[in-house]
Amino acid sequence: MKILVAVKRVIDYNVQIRVKEDNTGVVTDNVKMSTNPPDDNAIEEAVKIKEAGKATEVVAVSIGEEKAQETVRKALAVGADKGILVKTDSVIEPLAVSKLLQKIVEKEKPDLVFMGKQAIDDDCNQTGQMLSALLNWPQATFASKIEIKGDKLEVTREIDEGLETIEINVPAIVTCDLRLNEPRYASLPNIMKAKKKPIEQLNASDLGVDITPRIEQVKVEEPPKRKAGIKVSSVAELVQKLKNEAKVI
Amino acid sequence: MSVLLIAEHNNKELKPFTLNASTAASQIDNDVHAIIIGYKCDEAAKALSELPLIKKVIQVEASHYENFVAENFAPVIVKLAENYSHIISSANTFGKNLMPRIAAALDTSQISDIIKVIAPDTFLRPIYAGNAFATVKSKDAKKCVTVRPTSFDPCESSGGSAPIEKADPGEEFAKTKFVKREEVKSDRPELGTARVVVSGGRGMQSGDNFKLITSLADKLNAAIGASRAAVDAGYISNDHQVGQTGKVVVPDLYIAVGISGAIQHLAGMKESKVIVAINKDGEAPIFSVADYGLEADLFEAVPQFLEELNKLNTIQK
Ligand SMILES: Cc1cc2nc3c(=O)[nH]c(=O)nc-3n(C[C@H](O)[C@H](O)[C@H](O)COP(=O)(O)OP(=O)(O)OC[C@H]3O[C@@H](n4cnc5c(N)ncnc54)[C@H](O)[C@@H]3O)c2cc1C
Ligand SMILES: Nc1ncnc2c1ncn2[C@@H]1O[C@H](COP(=O)(O)O)[C@@H](O)[C@H]1O
Fold it and tell me: Is residue A35 lining ligand 2, measured as CB closer than 6 Å?
């Protein structure tokens, strides 16, 4: 079995982002970038499946600017065998990403595609489901547990009501929740080894897909600020305030 | 052209967020049709037809729709889409799972999780865990939009009598099979719509200690929330998680106990009307959004809180 994992380069989750003064977006210059957190879970799961002898190859793919190569490299350092970078400097929406990934899937012929459930920059939560629709494959979104049973997967999904279990046939798309596993850190020797692993570079424009944005970002603003609150000195004071001032109890 | 709302239900009842999504749909165009796909869902279809905002209900039934598998649902909606300018659903796990399949099939760039309708093609949506708001304008002919339910008031739920039309079901997608759902049932108010939410974090230290949160919630007739760290540690089940990758709540009162206030948690609760934080670390970021901060050990403060509430006999039930 071959597993393709899509990894996106995003602003690190610890960074307090800032909106640009001209309201065209958020500041990305000199800001720490990392792999989108649930994409780390996606790689980890793929590597674990390979280590368990149930997969033969793990391929990591990222779409974005030249620097997204670092994100692919990191996937290689934690166990992916091969990387693919689809280069583009333009803004790409989930629909365009899913179309590009469809091309990669047609080329690489994986049995499974693992992705994150949501990118923490655009918070779209779309790409996996879109890719699955384009390929007409089953989708298991928000996965917190994956069990391989021959050519089927049993997946536990995190839904608003609790947990749901579905069974899907391979080939399939799985989008991963952070609770799926505990991603490992790359060891120094593995980081060194990863430098020798191949990364294939492609240009998005060569894949025959129209990636022109369909959504115009009119402006990006700071959200309204909450007015500063107060500290209370005791529980009694807190309860009095909630009752008499805020009138919420 | 009309807008099509995808109703969320459990075959018996409408899910409450359907009312909020209806409000959003009606702000785009007042000719709102609603589709309900399910199995033996007459009761829910009737409830839907009673929303005064809904002009027509389309009901599609088959046994393979019983468990809301997106692969089965999407083609039904795609088939009807030519009559509609917009397809709308809630941005909860139901809508998040389903809508992108529809959007991709229609070759439309979906707009997720809107918090405001600015014009039929222009919407406001949070990005970066709500640390920025983007105004986005769709250039697609057909628009697929998911709605953050807590940003729209629920619509009236009675008084309407929209006609219910039946439409033919589609085929079953055989490669995806529903196995089971583990729903945590409780008599408490639902987290998404509760007036008061009491949430516990890693500071609770154990699932057993979460009883303190439960007692406080009982007293205040509140729903129970949690940080991701508390869920990850197994103190409480995943359906309680509030935040960027959990649920968004906007109660009148949100009480955060032993929660540090990471941006991913704030993303799910910082629009609450009144926020209370109980934390022993005076520097915890949760205090930056709290209207009332209490710097204290929760194991002392929460029992005292319960005592003080007992003293008040005017608590709303
Ligand atoms: C991509 C991504 C998505 C995420 N999504 C979410 C999400 O949806 N929701 C979410 O909540 N988190 C989310 N997180 C995790 C988030 O970053 C934080 O790790 C998490 O919110 C921390 O939970 P916490 O505040 O309970 O724990 P901690 O940060 O460990 O804080 C515990 C707090 O308890 C206090 N405390 C300890 N003991 C006591 C005591 N006896 N009395 C009083 N106070 C005490 C401490 O002072 C501390 O402030 C996400 C992270 C990532 C990377
Ligand atoms: N540019 C990209 N390159 C690689 N993978 C991506 C890219 N954009 C999105 N993805 C994948 O799609 C998932 C969901 O993203 P989104 O739909 O934007 O929330 C991410 O977690 C990634 O696995």
Answer: no
Cis-peptide, bond into residue A171, ω within 30° of zero: yes
Distance of alpha carbon A155 from alpha carbon A143, whole angstroms? 6
Give the pLDDT confidence of A18-48 residue by residue, as tens digits: 999 999 999 999 999 999 999 999 999 999 9
Cβ distance A133 to B100 less than 8 Å, yes or no, reads yes
Concatenate the DSSP letters of all residues of B129-154 into one string. GGTEEEEEEE-SSSEEEEE-GGGSPP
The answer to whether the CB of A25 falls within 8 A of the CB of B134 is no
Query: Alpha carbon B103 to chain centroid distance?
Result: 20
Question: Where is B125: in which H helix or E strand?
Answer: strand B122-127
**Cα(A98) to centroid(ligand 2), Å:** 8
Percentage of chain B beyond pLDDT 70 is 98
Cα of B260 to ligand 1 centre, how many Å? 5
Report CA(B134)–ligand 2 centroid distance (Å). 19
Residue from the list B182, B270, B315 with its beta carbon closest to the beta carbon of A162:
B182
Planar angle of CA A142, A148, A150, nearest 5 degrees: 140
Q: Where are the beta strands (DSSP E) in chain A?
A: 2-6, 9-11, 33-35, 57-64, 82-87, 112-116, 139-149, 152-159, 162-169, 172-176, 199-203, 215-221, 230-232
**Per the CB < 8 Å rule, is B181 touching A243?**
no
Predicted TM-score (pTM) above 0.95: yes
**Cα B13 → chain centroid:** 16
Which residue, judged by its Cα, is nearest atom 13 of ligand 2? Answer: A116
A47 C-beta closer than 6 A to ligand 2:
no
